[in-house]
Amino acid sequence: MVAAQNSQLEFVEEKWPLHTVIHYSKANWDGSNKGYVSVYFKDKQWMESLKWHEGQKQATVVPAKIDHTTFNVSHFKNFRCQEGQCRQLGEMFWNEAIGGFVLQLGELNDTITNIPSYWHSYDFDFGSLMAAFLFKKAPDTHQFHRADFQEQGGNFSFGPIGLIEMTYVGKNQVQGVDCHLYSINGPGLHDRGGKIWFDVKNMLMRGFKIELPDESSYNNVDFQYLGQEQMNPTEWEEFKQQKWN
User: Fold this and answer.
1) pLDDT tens for residues 56-94?
2) Relative to the CA of 156, which of 78, 93, 105, 165 has its CA 20 to 30 Å away?
3) What is the count of structural domains for the chain?
């Protein structure tokens, strides 16, 4: 049962890389349309994803709150930042009273009650999957549902897309680092999956290469680890603002 997959995970506070920034590059397989993604572990539950292209003076910021009991996102926000200002585009948060999510996106206000109990977002560059795998007990096969925004007839909605299975292949070196290699595929990736790697030492996501693009500006996705560093919250705010000022 996919719902039981989070039993493979066990939250240990010391494994949460508080105030650490993980830097990645994101491009097509041929290296074109290269952009950057930096993921910051802001406090004990919130992480933020910063996405930008060099020289464009604009960026997208996505804060996400991780529930360490379900290993799902319980609260998403989305900001578009440019010319020194950030504008919130949307927000989605879990509402226990309705047993689902409340979505606010522009003029759209909706409730979503059909999200599976264990899911991750590809639009979030599998950031919540990365957060969950920090607490993986063993490098075995793993399943989860993908849920993301979809467009139909010019209208956007958020909902389940399909099951994704990660099959453990074995150890593999990536950039000189011992990693656990998984194949990743399934209906949630329209059967156009690929490979994903996690550091043997700390289960940090080292990157993935997936045939299915997560947005229309890409043909496929090559997501690569660039490095990491410590930043306090003030330093992180300054780092972000450099990308759109």
Assistant:
1) 999 999 999 999 999 999 999 999 999 889 999 999 999
2) 165
3) 1
Q: Does the global pTM surpass 0.90?
A: yes
Which residue is listed with tokens 């960026």? Answer: 59
Contact 79, 87 (CB under 8 A): yes
In the numeric block, the tokens 């585009």 are attached to 89
**DSSP letter at 9?**
B
CA 168/CA 75 separation, integer angstroms: 30
Q: For the purposes of burial, counting CB atoms within 10 Å of the CB of 56, is it exposed (0-12), middle (13-18) or buried (19 or more)?
A: exposed
- The residues, any chain, with a CB within 8 Å of residue 8's CB and separated by 6 or more, are 136, 137, 138, 140, 142
pLDDT at residue 151 above 90?
Answer: no
Closest by Cα among 138, 20, 156 to 78: 156
Provide the residue range defining the domain that includes 19: 2-241
Give CA–CA dist 101/107, Å, rounded.
16
